[in-house]
Each structure stands twice: as C-alpha cells, then as structure tokens.
Specification:
Blueprint: H1 7-23, H2 27-31, H3 38-45, E1 52-56, H4 62-70, E2 75-80, H5 83-95, E3 104-106, E4 123-129, H6 138-147, E5 149-160, H7 168-179, H8 187-198, E6 202-209, E7 214-221
Parallel strand pairs: 1-2, 1-4, 2-3, 4-5
Antiparallel strand pairs: 5-7, 6-7
Helix pairs in contact: 3-4
The protein binds S-adenosylmethionine.
S-adenosylmethionine binds next to helix 1 and helix 4.
C-alpha cells in the first residue's frame, strides 16, 4: 500500500483516522442499513474486460470486493484518506482471496493521479460511493476525478439525496443522525454535474431512489 504526504493532507488523514479508528470494526454491519444504492451502482457499472476502475474513499473495500467479483476481467483500485479504514480494507481483501487483484493506497480524493497506482494512463471509471457527503472539498475531488478520467470514461456517484419526497420528520431525523458523523447531503454535487453537462464536458444521467433518499450521477466524459 502506498501513502500520500503534504501538510493539509496530514490533517485530513488524521481526522478520518479519528472517525474510523473504532467504527471500522462494525462499519459494514451498520452501514448496510443506511448506505442504500451501493449494490445498484455496482450492478450498473458494467465494467468491461481490461478497464481500470478506481473507487475513491473505498473505506472497508466492501464495494471493491463486490465489484471485483462481479466483473472479474476488469482491474480495480482503491484509495482512502484513512490508514485506519485501509487496515480493515486490506484484511477484507486478503480474506476474500483478492490480494493481488485489488491494489489499495492511502491518498486523497483531491490530489490522486493514475501514478498513485503506478499507472501511466487515465482511469476508465471512477466511483464515489457515499464519499462526497463526508469530504471537505467535494468540488475539488470531482474536478480532480474528471481530469484523471480518459475521454469516454465514466464517473459514477451514489450518495445521500435531499430526501425531499420523504416525510418531514424523517428528513429531520436523518439530517440529525448524519450530522453526528459530519455527513450531509451536498446539493453542490448535483449542481457540479449539471454544469459539466451544460458546458459539454460529459453526458449525464441522474436518478434517485427511496423518496430521494439516495441519488446517483453517471457522467460519461466527452
Ligand atoms: C462513508 S465512507 C464510504 C466508504 C465506501 N465508499 C462505502 O460505500 O462503503 C467514506 C470514506 O471516505 C474516506 N475519505 C474521507 N475524506 C477523504 C478524502 N479527502 N480522500 C479520500 N478518502 C476520503 C473516509 O476515510 C471513508 O473511508
């Protein structure tokens, strides 16, 4: 596993390490009850043989393991800011028997490049699953991801929506709960995707599930 350096980077890494030092041990068990849509994203990923697919903020590698099994001929990579999360990810990848197939790196959404994984070509697909709602600076993360993607490559996002079609009391409870983890629906993410499409940088598909509980963005870079 490689590691990223830099000054602000150290703060970001330490803050995520603090959050996940304990949580990583029961993360997958608890998150399956509220990180909806992750399997839907994997099902629609449609990764082709030989394609390179990066998950940014891969956490415990839960998605990476499912993706690598679902698309055995594609090449998967994972990065995360938190060394603590990566410890859990590495154990999970080893348990799944995928150690050689799933390179992991400590790196930041805002600054990674293909060179983070010793690649010399841009990625074919980049995935953000419930990561943009926790990252300080999601716009920088999206700008960086788009520039590390090849033309014709795809950016895939699933994250919390605005829950607007759900009852008001539920919206309040959800926002209160997410705030405990410094997570929030980020309307600027949707605005960023609309802007890219409007400016001709990509072809956009959006959808929501569960009364707008979760939202998906898929942008094919032009
Ligand atoms: C809510 S978890 C989602 C994990 C996984 N993608 C999933 O769907 O289960 C968010 C992850 O983003 C990582 N993260 C937060 N800020 C980051 C950054 N600036 N760069 C890379 N990863 C970051 C956290 O350490 C954490 O593992």
């Amino acid at each position: 596993m490689t590691r990223a350096g830099g000054s602000g980077a150290v703060d970001a890494r330490e803050s995520m390490d603090r959050m996940y030092r304990l949580q990583r041990h029961f993360y997958d068990l608890t998150r399956k009850y509220y990180l909806f849509g992750r399997d839907g994203l994997i099902e629609r990923l449609d990764a082709r043989p030989g394609e390179t697919v990066l998950e940014v903020g891969c956490g415990t590698a839960r998605n990476l393991i499912k993706m690598a099994r679902r698309y055995p001929e594609a090449r998967f990579f994972g990065l995360d800011a938190s060394d603590e999360m990566l410890k859990t990810a590495e154990s999970a990848v080893a348990r799944a028997g995928l150690r050689g197939r799933l390179p992991l790196a400590q790196a930041f959404a805002q600054t990674f490049t293909p060179a983070t994984f010793a690649l010399d070509q841009p990625f074919d697909r980049i995935v953000f699953s419930y990561t943009l709602s926790i990252i300080p600076g999601p716009m920088e993360a999206l700008d960086n991801a788009l520039s590390q993607l090849r033309s014709g490559g795809t950016l895939h996002v699933v994250d919390f929506g605005d829950a607007a079609a759900l009852p008001g009391w539920f919206q309040g409870m959800l926002a209160w709960w997410l705030d405990k983890f410094h997570i929030a629906h980020r309307p600027e993410v949707g605005a960023w995707f609309e802007r890219q499409a409007a400016e001709g940088h990509g072809r956009l598909e959006t959808r929501t599930i569960g009364g707008r509980y979760a939202e998906f963005f898929t942008l094919v870079k032009t």
